[in-house]
Fold these 4 entries.
Entry 1:
Amino acid sequence: MTTEVGPARVGDALPPLEIEITRTLVVAGAIASRDYQDVHHDAESARQKGSPDIFMNILTTNGLVGRYITDYFGPRAVLRRVAIRLGAPNHPGDTMVLTGVVEDVRGDTATVRVVGANSLGKHVTGTVTVTVPVPVPVPVPRAATDSAPQATAATPEATAATPQTTAATPESRS
């Protein structure tokens, strides 16, 4: 849902983003972030340690929060600071809903309070500072003037009516 938004204003609410928590998402996120703790991929180990199932690691959550912000602010958005805290775990079979509200705006930089909640409560809370650089205008080339040579397409009629110029060769000189 990448959009180009106008300047952010304090109080602006970002649209909610629902993320289905699948076993694949949990395991792939852990592997991608090189977090090989067994509680993120081995359900039996997670149960032995007191969890009902595997659960999402903080690095995956951090990436999803970053995606939420950049999807909203657009492709020029640059994350400057992500400060999050985990709460209730994200288990497979649940849904996390991310929401956000702009808390501060200074020039081209905004701070957004983010909450990600699931059926157990708040999974993640925190703030993200994002800069959306103002695009630099691209100079437009000046239009060609009448004195500039004009290119024309050759048509069969124009080609037939044009006398052919040939270079003189030593054999043709007599």
Note: The CA atoms of residues 118 and 139 lie 49 Å apart.
Entry 2:
Amino acid sequence: MVNRNKSLTRGLQVLKEIMNSEQSISANALCLKLEIDKSTMSRLITTLINEGFVKYVENTKEIIYADVVGNLSKRKREEMIVKQSQNLLNEIFSQTNECSYISVYDEDMIMHLNQVDNSNRILKNRDSIGFHSPLHATAMGKVILAFSDELDISKLTLEEYTHSTITHPKRLQLDLHTIKEIGYAIDDEEYEYGLRSVAVPYFSKSGELIGALGVSGLAARLDVEKLQEFSTILIALANKHKFNSI
């Protein structure tokens, strides 16, 4: 019991030091500050990472606080969105016969929370649940950029994925202005060659932007006119099944 309490105390000391640090911190620096040997520090950090309290800065060994409470709240909200939108995605697929999606903003990208594809096609869209895609090169991302009051496109890296990807800020701004006017966005092979998609904003009953709803499929099957036709269906269903914030 004594050893467990000692280990817990050390772990809390390490966590407190990471939380109070104004910038990322290395394991070596923590060892020096707290006078803990490297092997013990390694075990403590591994435990804190596995439990979701801290994380490494991408591609480094620098450590930062992971906001476990915020992450749990975020996960709960995402689960609620998936649950409430399941019938909506089923209805979108039923009316379009194309793979339907719901996505949300996540750290300067979109994350695909759920999708429905009940078709019998041999070539089907891959399972994208949990995957991230760029904001500027996807229909869902552009919808979120267009209808969000908080996102700043000047901070985005407009990477080119295909010859159709919008990589100029002014052109993207014009595209977003049009999207907000017409209520939907189209990805015309801007992220992947051979794929097209259309998306609309998904709001709560109180008017909060929750994410984006969309459908996608092979460009050979979905021309721009068909996507425009689908946008009418998506807008109607999004208005019919608004998210019920709790």
Note: The longest helix spans residues 68-96.
Entry 3:
Amino acid sequence: MSETVADRAALMEQETRLSESPSAVPGTVRPGGRTAKVRRAVLDATEDALATAAFHTLNMDQIAASAGVGKTTVYRRWGSPTGLVADLLHDMAEQSLPAADTGSLPGDLRANAALVHRTLTDPRMGAVFRAVIAAAACDEECARALNGFYRTRLAEWAPVVTRAAARGEVPAGTDALELLRAVSAPLYYRFAITREELTEADAERAVTAALAAASAGAFTGRPGAE
């Protein structure tokens, strides 16, 4: 007899229960094995749901069914839809592409802007980001998770500015995080606030403006510094 979704869910739930610590924080896992497979299946199902519907429609029972995981496992480990979104954001930060190293600050910032543009204009990921931004606007747990996602990404890209300062491309003491924010902020404004079409020209304009501001010392606390 062929294995059914219910059979697979029961097996996954039984093995997950055996592998989990009773004091585990919802959404956290030990690496490898069935536990990691359960987390991957649930987070993929969560991303699928956010890509096709709004956050407020996220349903734990449907996520469990889509992932082929027992409902009690999903409720026990993630607790709520916000727990699912928070863990998805942690996973997205872990899976993000590494920062560029093109040999110049303009090249690195263009790579950064291109990544943001590509993500936000992708039909699937754009929808996912709209959903998590909306969730963060009304839920503190989601807001903290979204903040953590961007802290991780900014820290990943900060060395491009450090290297640029060492090459003399920007003033010493340039705040790397503020410069990187200046690149992505106009793109997110169009994407999330004004809901305008986001083009490659917008990305290039954001880089040009951020570079000009950095050269003028706008991110050192000493505007006009060279």
Note: The chain has ten helices and no strands.
Entry 4:
Amino acid sequence: MSDKNKEKDDKGLLESIKLIVSKEDKIKDQVESDRGLERYAKDLLLLMSLVKDYYQGNYRNIPYRTISAAVIGLLYVLNPIDLIPDFIPFIGHIDDALVLKFCLKRMEKDLLKYKEWKDEQSASNDRNTDQDNKKDKYAKTKDNKTDKKSADKDKDTDDSSK
């Protein structure tokens, strides 16, 4: 593949990712309301998180084929006009579920790696938050002791002036 074609593919992928990220709320609503997708809800939300982190540059340790499969799967779920139109009761989302299952199967290992990375990030953020809370608590305790010493000193000054 020439550099020009690769650049064009990358640009198309980023445009598709941008569209998906802008429709994040719609995807979440669709997952919550669609019976056919409920078994894939966690994976679909993780997939959405992966695409979002990729787009924001937070996570790039992923093969091109995997991010492409994620984008294709999410675009298919977003598109109301597909093999079986979504508005048909009971069977409208069967094709969405099948496409999603296929995409998830193709990227299973990479999605697990991403989940591990995401969990590490959350754990790191939790540790940082705990440390910040301890610092805040220490600072408040120190401020309270300083305020108490200052109040005692003021009281002593008032007592001596009487």
Note: Residues 127 and 133 are 10 Å apart (CA to CA).
